[in-house]
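Translate structure to sequence.
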């Protein structure tokens, strides 16, 4: 019998944040995304220090991984000229994945 609930997500690899930051630096959106990631990471690091939990750090990695995975589809949608007024906030989508 496991002590973790069955719905607990698998934690990212220990090197996931460094790999993610490297991908962000190569992105066309690097000028805005790298500082935003670093700010999110700093907040999560501080939260982890106070809570003695790695969950805040894992959440940042998962959120930014999802953003990178979605960037191609989002870019294609925006350049297609379709109406996006009925869009859904990314935070609402990501909260459902946890």
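Result:
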């Amino acid at each position: 019998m496991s002590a973790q609930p069955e719905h607990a997500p698998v934690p990212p690899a220990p090197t996931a944040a460094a790999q993610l930051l490297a991908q962000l630096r190569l992105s066309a959106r690097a000028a805005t995304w790298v500082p935003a990631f670093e700010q999110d990471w700093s907040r999560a690091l501080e939260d982890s220090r106070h809570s003695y939990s790695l969950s805040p750090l894992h959440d940042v990695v998962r959120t930014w991984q999802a953003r990178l995975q979605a960037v191609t589809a989002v870019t294609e949608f925006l350049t297609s000229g379709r109406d996006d007024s009925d869009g859904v906030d990314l935070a609402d989508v990501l909260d459902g994945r946890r």
